[in-house]
Write the structure tokens for this entry.
Amino acid sequence: MKIILNQSIENLGTAGEVLTVKDGYARNYLIPKGWAKQATRDNIASTEKAIEEQEKRDAKTRANLEALAKQLDKLSLKFELKAGEDDKLFGSVTSQMIVDAIAEKGYTVDKKEIEIPEAIKHVGKFFVDVKLGQGFSGRVKIKVSAEK
């Protein structure tokens, strides 16, 4: 029986692929679980159309992520925090503080996307990576100074 996979299945194939499998495997396992559908002309055409639409959406997303990464590379954030002796901060610069500062600049990132290599507990200049997904990342410059 010819089927179209709705999702990728290990040792069988990837989503959208047309395969020939045994009739019982398709009727009793793949189709009832929603992992595949029978390969008719209409189903093949609708699957191809859905794949094209998904590729267009992915291309737009990639373009948006690439543009956001470039904007984040240019971004510089400044924080003024209380500091004690030897320019050591009372507390630290957190990822939530960074997300809020980026939001003030007009960009939206998630707190989980911020990667701080080590805790920012001193006055100075630091770089923080923002992992946007799909292989895109931005690098934000952070300047921490002591409150006066």
